[in-house]
Structure formats: structure tokens, C-alpha cells
Amino acid sequence: MSSVLLACADSGKSREMMQAAMAAQPEDKKILEFFMYTCPHCRAVEPTIASWQAKQSVLFQQGIYAFEQIPAVFSASWQSDSKIGEKEAAIFYTLRRMGFEHQMRLRVFAAIQDKSLDASDADSIARFLQKEGIPAAEFGTTFKSTEVKADVNRAESLTRQYGIYSVPAFILFNRAIILPQEYADNQAVEAALLGKVKEFYTKNAGKPAAF
């Protein structure tokens, strides 16, 4: 099951699986996005995420809500001999622990999707990052650390817990799902994100959202 197939999977099946998984979760104040570096749809929605967060920034800056991007990791039992997305997740968490994830995000997407950088080859990734000014030795050590391994295991657990079948996928407050592939364009995706967050805030704060 490739990441492209995952991104283009039947959104109806994806929604059904996630709805069932969410039903067992308590409502919370988190917004999660499951993604993969190899997924073109995930890359395409990145500007939408930035625009949406900027428009509702007060909610995140004040700690009212939290947004977390999670690299999807699909267990070996999911029609594969290995865990799909495991190496990508390790790259993501390594860069995050080194403090470079945000600045490198779009460059990693581009290198993997446009320049055929092999996300499963840690040495190739390290060489690419070194050219971008990221210390290769530190990357290699962090990549193999127990902390990153724990991060990846958590990502796999959350992918399974939420019944993620395709990416990108947004889980809002354990009560709403937004699958970008169901929308006509990124503008519609942003409108859906803005609307759902405003609706949730208004309902729980008991007053109209001031944004």
C-alpha cells in the first residue's frame, strides 16, 4: 500500500473507519493532522494549514486549542511486510527534536517528491540535510535515539487508534473529521477548518468566536 494509494483511497471508507474510532474517544481540545512526506495531497495542503492557523492564531497562542501534525505509520499487518511511513516519521521527529522541522518541512516534501530522495534511506536523507546546513552526525545520532523511536511508536499507535486509512486527514476535538480529498480545492478545505473550529469554540465558550 503506497502513500499515493493511501492519499487516493476511498474517502468514504476512511471516514467510516475514523468515525467508529472517534466514537470511543473523549472530546478534547486538540486538532490532529495525519500526513506523509511522500503524499502529494499532504504537501499541497501545507499552505492551507498555514493560512488557517494565522487566521485563528489567537486560539493557539493562548493555548485554548492545540494543533499537532502526526506522520502516519501503518502497521506491518496492513498488507505490507514492513511498517509504511516508519522512516518518514523518524525523519519528522528527528528534525523536530533538533529544532529544524518547521524550517525544513517544505524542503523535505520537495526533495522526496520532486528529486526522488529515498525517504527510507537514512544515509541519503542525512546527506541531503547536510547540504541544507543540518549536521549529519547529529541527525544520525538523533535518528537512532530511543526518544525518536518512542515518538514513532506513538505515531503508529495514534494512526491505528484513529483508524487512519488515507492521508491527509484532520481530526478535530475527537468530534469532527476533515478529509481534504473530499473538497474541491484548498480554499474549501480552509473554510471547513475555520468553520469547524469556530463552531466548536462558540459551542464550548458560550459566546461567538472573536476571529
Automatic annotation (TrEMBL):
Subcellular location: Periplasm
Protein species of origin: Undibacterium umbellatum
PANTHER family: THIOL:DISULFIDE INTERCHANGE PROTEIN DSBA, THIOL:DISULFIDE INTERCHANGE PROTEIN DSBL
Family indicated by similarity: Belongs to the thioredoxin family. DsbA subfamily.
Protein name (Swiss-Prot/TrEMBL): Thiol:disulfide interchange protein
Gene3D superfamilies: Glutaredoxin
Superkingdom field: Bacteria
Keywords attached to this entry: Disulfide bond, Periplasm, Redox-active center, Signal
Start and end residues of each DSBA-like thioredoxin domain: 31-175
Main location: periplasm
Keyword Cell membrane: no
InterPro entries, sorted: DSBA-like_thioredoxin_dom (IPR001853), DsbA/DsbL (IPR023205), Thiol_disulfide_DsbA (IPR050824), Thioredoxin-like_sf (IPR036249), Thioredoxin_CS (IPR017937)
